[in-house]
């Protein structure tokens, strides 16, 4: 028994002197929904989004997620609200319900989804064969008003 105590203490001290295991890398601060596939190689749909802001303090960073037929297809780059943010994608021909979610990303990495009453409503967009559908989404009144402009090339 007397021999076990010094051996136990020696093992305890050796464990204290051993290098500490590195902690597991922190989980990504980007929401899982924001980790999206890359843009399509030959896009036939283009979304451009911007907001009219009143002061420079309101011009925080944001991005817009694009949902087609209820599935996340991608997102725009992160930029100031007043700057146009672009998403290019490939959407099958025909009428599709599309939803655009706005995420505030003031820290440049992670995002917080805007409340439902500040999100633009879901709309149907038609993608015609051989044409590019271009949607411009403009926000005004602090994000409470959203306007869609649709053109085709």
List the helices and strands and how they pair.
Layout (H helix, E strand, L loop, with lengths): L3 H14 L27 E7 L9 E8 L2 E5 L3 E2 L4 E5 L4 E11 L7 E2 L9 E5 L5 E8 L4 E8 L1
The quaternary state of the protein chains shown equals single chain
Number of helices: 1
The rounded Rg comes to 25 Å
Query: What is the level-2 CATH architecture name of the domain at 49-153?
Result: Sandwich
The total of beta strands comes to 10
Task: Describe the protein's architecture and organization.
There is one protein chain. The protein has 153 residues and is mainly β. The chain has a domain at 49-153: Immunoglobulin-like, CATH 2.60.40. The protein has one helix and ten strands. Strands 2, 3, 4, 6, 7 and 8 form a six-stranded antiparallel beta sheet that branches. A four-stranded mixed beta sheet has the order 5-1-9-10, with no helix packed on it. A hairpin with a 4-residue loop joins strand 9 (133-140) and strand 10. Mean pLDDT is 81; it is low at 20-36.
């Amino acid at each position: 028994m007397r021999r076990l105590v010094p051996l136990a203490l020696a093992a305890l001290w050796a464990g204290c002197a051993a290098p500490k295991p590195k902690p597991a890398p922190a989980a990504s601060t980007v929401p899982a929904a924001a980790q999206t596939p890359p843009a399509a190689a030959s896009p036939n749909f283009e979304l451009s989004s911007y907001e009219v802001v009143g002061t420079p303090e309101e011009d925080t960073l944001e991005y817009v997620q694009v949902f087609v037929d209820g599935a996340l297809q991608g997102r725009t780059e992160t930029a100031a609200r007043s700057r146009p943010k672009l998403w290019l994608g490939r959407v099958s021909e025909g009428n599709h319900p599309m939803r655009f979610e706005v995420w505030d990303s003031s820290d440049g990495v992670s995002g917080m989804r805007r409340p439902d009453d500040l999100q633009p409503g879901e709309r149907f967009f038609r993608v015609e064969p051989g044409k590019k559908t271009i949607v411009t989404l403009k926000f005004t009144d602090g994000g409470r008003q959203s306007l869609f402009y649709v053109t085709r090339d």
